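Ticket #4471: structure output looks truncated?

Reporter: J.K.
Steps to reproduce: submitted the chain below (335 residues) through the standard prediction queue, then opened the result file.
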Amino acid sequence: MSFIKLPIILSVFIYVCFFLIRFQQGGWDIRLDLFRAQREILDQTIGGYLPSPQAELLSGIILGEKKSLPPEFRLALRDTSTLHIVVVSGQNLTLVSMFFLALSGLIKRRVAICLSFLAIIFYTLLTGAQIPVLRAAIMVSLTFIAQIFGRQKEGLWVLSLTGGLMLLINPNWIFDLSFQLSFMATFGLIVITPVLLKKFKFLPLIGQDLAVTLGAQIMVIPIIAQNFHQISLVGVITNVLIGWTIPFIMIFGGILLVLNFFSQFLTQMISLILATFLTYFVYVVYFFASLPFSWEYIGEQFWIVWIGYYLVVAGALIIIHKKLDVRSEKLDKEV
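Returned output as attached by the reporter:
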């Protein structure tokens, strides 16, 4: 047995032991909602500048406030497979950390990484350490540690280690819908999206957004179908059309909350820009949800069906990989 396989087998054995022990003990429930009062104040600030449902939409995206959306809008989000956007996600944390990393041109890179760590901790606590943010916090932190020690980023290994650490803390999270969606969507972005990016090079404007959306959607379809008993037939196109607005909504939303402490006039100006993006988001969701073929009912399925689904996805990826390798070899020979 090689020295490479032995540590892997030993790690899996230790992990299984820890998993069984933690599962027997019931896991450790994390309660880190230390800034609920401050979060409610920020939520009220948003409500003072934006109408409904734009205000609730923004609060969900940047603060993780699970306020009651208008029933018809919540149904529209569900029917277009965009309900996951109205909660704080790992994308928020990534943008926060990348903002400080962008300062590495002005300050030392290690100082910028340390500032990113502090920003990660603060934002995670601000949002109440929700599962998607906690996963992203661990994953981004491990990536930064790898950068500090000069190690090349390996997304799949980092994600696996992140999932393992979270399940060691609380094994019951494996049954949590938020954990399943967050983990599998990230897996799709790491494994499927790079392959699709190569296939969609001929689409210069929407190719990247389409690859990102499909990469995530392909992996979460079984989870959504099993829990909500329906599949959105317009989910991909809706996510592509509104996905590009999320970074702008988060950036201008953060600016609005900061400017509110200094200038009401500037805050109102920013709120007008923000309202434009949010209103576009709302109308796109309503339009596609109103289509008669927006979703299809899926009954209860046995778990073996979804295993077959993932095996088909894996087989398709292997075939695409082989075709891309053959094509690249031909190009190398021609050169």
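Triage note (M.O.): checked the attachment and the full token line is present. DSSP finds 15 helices and two strands in the chain.
Status: closed, working as intended.
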